[in-house]
Amino acid sequence: MSQLVEKTPSPRTRKSIYNDLKELGVKKGMTIIVHTSLSSLGWVNGGAVTVIQALMDAVTEEGTIVMPSQTVEISDPAEWENPPVPEEWWEEIRETMPVYHPDYTPANFMGKVPEVFRTFPGIERSSHPSYSFTAWGKDKKHILADQSLEWSLGEESPLRKLYDQGAHVLLLGAGFDSCTAFHLAEYRVEYQDVITKGAPMIEDGERIWKEYKELEFRDELFEDLGADFVKTHSLSAGNVGSAKSYLFEVKEAVDYAEMWLNLYDRRKSESL
Question: PANTHER family, alphabetically (predicted)?
Answer without folding.
Answer: AMINOGLYCOSIDE N3-ACETYLTRANSFERASE, SPBETA PROPHAGE-DERIVED AMINOGLYCOSIDE N(3')-ACETYLTRANSFERASE-LIKE PROTEIN YOKD
